[in-house]
Specification:
The chain has helices at about 5-15, 30-45, 60-70, 85-95, 120-125, 160-175, 195-205, 220-230, 240-245, 270-280, 390-400, 435, 440-445, 470-475; strands spanning about 20, 25-30, 50-55, 75-80, 100-105, 115-120, 140-145, 155-160, 180-185, 205-210, 235, 260-265, 285-290, 300, 315-320, 325, 330-335, 345, 350, 355-365, 370-375, 380-385, 385-390, 405-415, 420-425, 450-455. By secondary structure, the chain is an alpha/beta fold. The chain has 2 domains: about 5-375, ANL, N-terminal domain (Rossmann fold); about 380-475, ANL, C-terminal domain (GMP Synthetase, Chain A, domain 3, 2-Layer Sandwich). The strands form 6 sheets. It has a 9-stranded mixed sheet with strand order 2-1-10-9-11-12-13-14-15, sandwiched between helices. Strands 4-3-5-6 form a 4-stranded parallel sheet. The protein has a 4-stranded antiparallel sheet with strand order 7-8-18-19. Helix 2 crosses helix 3, helix 6 packs across helix 7 (about 195-205) and helix 8 packs across helix 9 (about 240-245).
Length: about 475
């Protein structure tokens, strides 16, 4: 079954209900369906089934419409973060080898392959005949989400219709999402949190309200927006919730409509979660855990009585009917679940998994309640403001700079975003650090920018010649 099928079924029940609200613009289920069909009709005529289509649009109604249109045509959607540097965007496009890139207006100057460009406004004016959503096998790919890659380049996590559908159904049932819900959406569409906003919501007949990005910098205005729109559900990252708990004026801005908050992507500092829980005593809070490759495989409904500042909160119990095991030697969490990704999309094709079980790289243990506790990464991957970041990708960019001889990147703790990248660099003789790193603003996304730099004569190494990352961590503790 195509992942969009529940939406089309919902359209027959509540065609006049509001599907999406963006600023002052709203679209009903019937209107959204009409727009989807125009895009799907054009793509169906191009025989794009099982082909990759890139979405180069900001989060919003148009982007959601493009995603549903691509899926209705039996193709695979790949959302870009168009705020990223042009070099990263074009790397993804060259690696993904899409049939088309859907954006708005004329092809942008940064796009190396302008012939791939489709203007969504033109697509919405198409008169091609739409048939029905293209039937697909459960194993057919639905989405490709590019994440930071351990090889120094982004890599595409390929998700099937079955994987997205399994999570969507589980979330709808577990959190009792219905057609009276108003769901706040802030997660970018290239971030796996958006799967809840895009698919669980519309399958349940709910209304999705796009939270203006500018409000994430003004916590008191954000909470006022939640109150004004009578938001009932919100899935977001702990760093933003911490910000709201500390500076969101929740003590004078009641949120009686907010039934539940789901959070994922990074560790929620206990002291900030306690404050949020106290300020929103009637709101149910849920910690959702899982790498992009598994979406959510574990969850914990926050038990306010068990919260304390000295202990990290659990990641909880298996979600989505996942079978979880712990490697006896390393403590690594391993996941067997219908949510699991199909493999990595590289050089225009799927590199499928050889196993139904995915090894997360995360160290866990079981607590006295039979719940899973998270103890951090077994490798070097960072979680920065909810984004998964590989230090190798940052190192690759820094090492490309003319005045840098070598570098190493590690993560340091940050009270608001969980972790921040920090770099140790070796400069060529006579170079200035400030001048040397200027180009990084054009090469790296904001959350990947190192927050601190230390200049050394040589990188510390182990006896085997490999970089001594522990010694580098120690440099930032001085």
């Amino acid at each position: 079954m195509n992942i969009v099928t529940p939406f089309f079924q919902q359209c027959t029940q509540t065609p006049e209900a509001t599907a999406f609200v963006e600023e002052n613009q709203a679209t009903s289920y019937a209107e959204f369906k009409s727009s989807i069909e125009k895009i799907a009709a054009f793509l169906q005529a191009k025989s794009v089934q099982n082909q990759c289509i890139i979405i180069a649009l900001d989060r919003g109604i148009n982007s959601a419409c493009a995603i549903y249109g691509v899926l209705s045509a039996g193709a695979i959607y790949l959302p870009l973060d168009i705020k990223n540097p042009a070099t990263r965007l074009n790397f993804i496009i060259q690696d993904a080898q899409p049939s088309y890139v859907i954006g708005q207006g004329e092809a942008p100057a940064w796009l190396d392959k302008a012939e791939l460009w489709l203007d969504i406004d033109a697509l919405l004016c198409t008169t091609a005949e739409y048939i029905t959503p293209t039937a697909v096998e459960p194993s057919a790919l639905a989405a490709i989400l590019y994440t930071s890659g351990s090889t120094g380049n982004p890599k595409g996590v390929a998700l099937s219709h079955q994987a997205i559908g399994n999570f969507s159904v589980w979330a709808g049932q577990t959190f009792a999402i219905n057609n009276q819900e108003r769901i706040a959406s802030l997660a970018p569409f290239h971030f796996d949190l958006s799967i809840f906003d895009l698919f669980t919501s519309l399958a349940s007949g709910a209304s999705v309200y796009f939270l203006p990005s500018r409000l994430s910098l003004s916590p008191s205005r954000l909470t006022a927006w939640l109150a004004e729109k009578q938001i009932s559900s919100w899935y977001t990252v702990p760093s933003l919730l911490s910000f709201i708990a500390l500076k969101g004026a929740l003590d004078v801005t009641p949120l009686p409509s907010l039934k539940r908050i789901l959070f994922a992507g990074e560790v929620f500092p206990s002291q900030h979660l306690i404050k949020l829980a106290n300020l929103l005593p009637e709101t149910k809070l849920y910690n959702l855990y899982g790498p992009t490759e598994t979406n959510v495989c574990c969850y914990w409904q926050v038990d306010r009585k068990r919260l304390n500042t000295e202990d990290a909160i659990p990641i909880g119990l298996p979600a989505c009917n996942a079978q979880l095991t712990i490697d006896a030697g390393t403590g690594e969490l391993q996941v067997n679940c219908l949510n699991n990704f199909s493999g990595y999309w590289q050089q225009g094709k799927l590199h499928a998994l050889n196993s139904k079980t995915y090894s997360t790289g995360d160290k866990v243990s079981l607590n006295q309640y039979g719940e899973y506790n998270y103890h951090g990464r077994l490798d070097r991957m960072l979680k920065c403001s909810g984004y998964r970041v590989e230090p190798a990708e940052i190192e690759q960019c820094i090492n490309q700079l003319e005045s840098i001889e070598s570098c190493a990147v590690i993560g340091i703790k940050d009270t608001t975003s969980g972790q921040r990248p920090a770099a140790v660099v070796v400069l060529i003789a006579g170079a200035s650090l400030a001048e040397a790193i200027k180009p990084l603003r054009q090469l790296l996304a904001p959350y990947m920018q190192p927050c601190k730099f230390i200049v050394v004569e040589n990188l510390p190494v182990l006896s085997n010649g490999k970089t001594d990352y522990q010694a580098i961590q120690d440099l930032f503790r001085v």
